[in-house]
Amino acid sequence: MTLDWISPAERLxxxxxxxxxxxxxxxxxxxxxxxxxxxxxxxxxxxxAPQPVIDAAxxxxxxxxxxxxxxxxxxxSFRRAITSWYRRRYDVDxxxxxxxxxxxxxxxxLTHLALAYLNPDDVVLVPSPAxxxxxxxxxxxxxxxxxxxxKPEQDWLIDLAAIPEAIAKQAKILFFNYPSNPTGATAPRExxxxxxxxxxxxxxxxxxxxxxxxxxxxxxxxTSLLEIxxxxxxxxxxxxxxxxxxxxxWRVGFVVGNRHIIQGLRTLKTNLDYGIFAAxxxxxxxxxxxxxxxxxxxxxxxxxxxxFLIDGLAQLxxxxxxxxxxxYVWVPCPIGMxxxxxxxxxxxxxxxxxxPGNAFGVGGEGYVRVSLxxxxxxxxxxxxxxxxxxxxxxxxxxxSG
Length: 401
Ligand SMILES: *Cc1c(COP(=O)(O)O)cnc(C)c1O
What we know:
There is one protein chain. Mean pLDDT is 94; it is low at 395-401. The chain folds into 2 domains: 10-48 and 293-388, Aspartate Aminotransferase, domain 1, CATH 3.90.1150.10; 51-288, 3-Layer(aba) Sandwich (Aspartate Aminotransferase, domain 2), CATH 3.40.640. Helix 8 (189-202) links the parallel strand 5 (171-176) and strand 6. 40% of the residues lie in helices and 13% in strands. It is α/β, with parallel strands linked by helices. The longest helix is centred in the C-terminal third of the chain and has 24 residues, at 292-315. The chain starts with 9 loop residues before the first helix and ends with a helix. The strands form 3 sheets. It has a 7-stranded mixed sheet, sandwiched between helices. The protein has a 3-stranded antiparallel sheet with strand order 9-12-11. A two-stranded parallel ribbon has the order 1-10. Pyridoxal-5'-phosphate is lined by residues 43, 105-107, 131, 177, 181, 209, 211, 240, 242-243, 248, 253. Pyridoxal-5'-phosphate binds next to helix 5.
């Protein structure tokens, strides 16, 4: 008997195909053909979690008190570790009981925030390109996504003045993310001030994803939304331990900011999950308390790879600016070539996996994202193959976008 007559809900049919899943199929096929793949496609950090965090997790596993259901709202001591980290890092005071909520990774929280706050046909402002959860959450909720197309000539910053007044008045949520995945762009503090003023003027819930809070280089320090006066009245900010501490598989993130918004998300989550395994919450506290030297090592690692790759690409004629943050290099495709075609031809000719920019929305068309998730020897091998395959890049592509 087939179950063809049971089709998934319309909310699933509204979703464009998940490009990473498709890329996985293509990778599997390339592997079958015997290609030695260099996978720079995903944003999956390649190192282990810090040893003190692993030790704390092992120790916490031995404690049976951690084996039951954790509290819905996260353990009180992890919430306190979050707000202490925030005070240390940004000099911002938050109430650990109402203004901080642990999440099963920030992707979970971002998506559920959309479900907690959006009705069908509500209007949501989402940059394009963007991290996929920023538009997929609203699509699952049945909302209307109004894409804010980002452009290289505006340094990939949202052009707030270009948003039509009527759309701004209807909009319920604005998602944004600097330092940005996938573009690697950073936003100056004045931009944060402008976007807070915009959200306050139009009474829009402002959602900032600060996933790359710590992966910044050359002395650059990313701004937190909550450093901006008045931001907490209309906004929340999502954080994750996945990238900074190589803990992507542990599923630990958190949201901080406006207590009413966090309360709505908590209400939804109470009906869906029990939160993070308590043993991992106590290990996560140790991560947030690690001395700066640990974070500096991670930064150095990505900076070294960034410099190595961009300098190597420059020798092949690819003139790509160095991002001040994130673990990504955003590379224009050769003129006249779409991002899917370019990513596929790079994969077939060289075995190097990069992500087509259109995976992040139409605004990412014409680019591919290269993740700095391999050591320099592998990046060097990728460069060597680019050279051999004569994968060329015309610098005008930077302008034509
Ligand atoms: C990697 C990434 C996330 C996902 O983080 P998790 O906490 O692992 O779910 C969220 N936002 C952005 C922009 C990312 O790049």
